[in-house]
Design goal:
40% strand
């Protein structure tokens, strides 16, 4: 589903309308979208994150309902920035395009392992004045691909391939 459609579904929900009427909801702004694509089960999970100065509000968008979860905001050197609603209308690499973009890049880089899961994070990048998809792709055969895609141009900014075993270190037991 396109990001603009996810936002429309959220904005039409009673949960979101009640939230925006609340004191903490009035100052909250969209700061991220999370999409988990399970290629094996052909399923997708979507959530949109809003934040204010103190909290982050995650709205999980399910088939017939919207659920909200509130967490205390963890202060960071690089806080989640506001996503400009006007830029969303200009997206060339949208949520519904992610799997095809990943498959194309895998083929281009001669990676034949099938995709099992894609974890996509959509957020604003003020340094580059753009919107970015940060993707972690888990493929069969312990292959992990990390990608960054400029959502406004559709261009791949970074592509890294790793093997899950690169993250695991085995220590030999010490002899006594």
């Amino acid at each position: 589903m396109a990001l603009s459609n996810l936002l429309k579904t959220l904005e039409d929900s009673k949960t979101y309308k009640d939230f925006k009427k609340s004191e903490e909801g009035k100052s909250a702004f969209l700061c991220a979208a999370f999409i988990i694509i399970n290629a094996k089960q052909n399923s997708t999970e979507n959530s949109l994150d809003f934040r204010n100065d103190k909290n982050i509000f995650t709205f999980k968008i399910l088939d017939n309902e919207v659920l909200m979860q509130k967490e205390e905001l963890i202060q960071s050197q690089k806080p989640l920035e506001k996503i400009d609603d006007k830029q969303i209308a200009s997206i060339k690499a949208d949520a519904e395009d992610i799997q095809k973009l990943v498959e194309k890049e895998l083929e281009k880089n001669k990676i034949t392992n099938p995709i099992e899961e894609i974890i996509a994070v959509f957020q604003s990048n003020q340094e580059e004045k753009s919107l970015i998809w940060s993707l972690t792709c888990i493929c069969a055969g312990f292959t992990i691909v990390s990608m960054k895609i400029d959502a406004l141009s559709g261009g791949v900014l970074r592509f890294d391939k790793k093997n899950l075993l690169d993250f695991v270190s085995v220590k030999k037991p010490e002899k006594k």
